[in-house]
Amino acid sequence: MFQGHIDLDTAMPIAETAIPDVLFERGLYWASGRSGVVNLVAAHKWFNLAALKGRRDAIMLRQEVAELMSEVEIATAQREARAWISAN
Description:
Layout: H1 19-32, H2 40-52, H3 56-66, H4 71-87
Helix pairs in contact: 1-2, 2-3, 2-4
């Protein structure tokens, strides 16, 4: 968890072209268990969003994650991805 200070005067926005990379990295974070917990629903969600934004390699990883998930988990991940799109 971030425990610092963000200087909003010098902060720069993420370039639009970087968004797919950020989404992909979030998928890797949850798929790999970097947080100490593997969360396949979150990984699928973020890989799905990265794929929608143009990261072709996210499609393959989303499929690999989906093979480990139940249909209910996949539906949940898809719902969460749609909710994220609506909110952003």
